[in-house]
Specification:
alpha+beta; DUF4268; DUF4268 domain-containing protein; four-stranded antiparallel beta sheet; globular; about 130 residues
Amino acid sequence: MCPKFRGSFGWFNAASTAARQARFEYRLEYDTPNALVEFALLRSDGEQIYKSLVRRRKQINEAFGGSLLWLQEAQNAEHSWPYPALAWTIACPGLRDLDRRTWPLIQSRMIDAMVCLEQAVVPYLQRWLEED
């Protein structure tokens, strides 16, 4: 995966673009195995952005340092509709079964993956960042 990020965080998320709703998310669910890091396109033009990113799949995967999950119809409990997303999973038991001593390691891996995902995707979002 990409080298660990050193410096300030410049997250592109719901806080900075609340009206448009494209965001990076962390998720570790109580009963479901594996932690998930996701770039969720919760926007009216999300499918258009997703198709643009798919055309850069090879470059994005290389910049990330692994093969991301390219989900045309991702779903989770927070959103009642399917949405396009790019995701990475980190193998671990669900939160219910996760040994508390391993939490810092899982959290560190999730943060590293989120930073790498941001660094891999944001260069291809300039057109939409300028519009917001």
